[in-house]
Design goal:
about 25% helix; 6-stranded mixed sheet; alpha/beta
Length: about 170
């Protein structure tokens, strides 16, 4: 099997499409430091992090979408963007991972009898971490995993995934 050079670009499109909530939507998990005082966190800034691909700059547009969506969600929760990392209460870091997922199942058709069917999909995981800027320690982490799908409305889809991840932030 020959792999085309267009695979990295296709990966970027799929990553944007992943952020489309499918029928079931993303699977989201969160965890946080129970000792952290989330009421003290009022300002945020982005630490150096970005989606990375095989080609330099491959995920630049996706990086902007993720950051805009997170900014909007945090501002809706009463937080404000700090002018610099040094003046922020928390720093934000994210990672985007993709992997191939193969599902194998038995299909029972009325005409040809049982047969084995395999589906191959790309799966993406967005991991968002909130770091206490003064202690330099992760105090909250959310991750959303979903199947990658191409989309006509990537900004909206990124927003839905980020909103789902940040749904319980800050923890009560």
């Amino acid at each position: 099997m020959r792999v085309s050079r267009k695979v990295p670009i296709l990966g970027a499109l799929l990553a944007v499409g992943w952020l489309a909530a499918g029928c079931a939507g993303p699977q989201v998990t969160t965890d946080w430091d129970r000792a952290a005082d989330f009421r003290a966190y009022r300002t945020f800034a982005w630490a150096p992090s970005r989606a990375t691909g095989d080609v330099p700059g491959e995920y630049d547009i996706l990086d902007k979408r993720i950051r805009r969506a997170v900014d909007a969600e945090l501002q809706a929760r009463g937080m404000t963007s700090a002018r610099s990392e040094k003046s922020a209460d928390v720093l934000l870091v994210y990672r985007l991972h993709t992997r191939d997922r193969i599902d194998v199942y038995r299909h029972y058709g009325w005409r040809f009898g049982p047969r084995t069917v395999a589906t191959r999909e790309k799966e993406g995981t967005l991991v968002l971490q909130v770091v206490d800027a003064h202690q330099q320690a992760v105090v909250w982490e959310g991750r959303g995993t979903d199947v990658l799908r191409p989309s006509d409305h990537p900004d909206e889809q990124v927003g839905k995934v980020v909103a789902k991840i940040l749904e319980g932030f800050p923890p009560q």
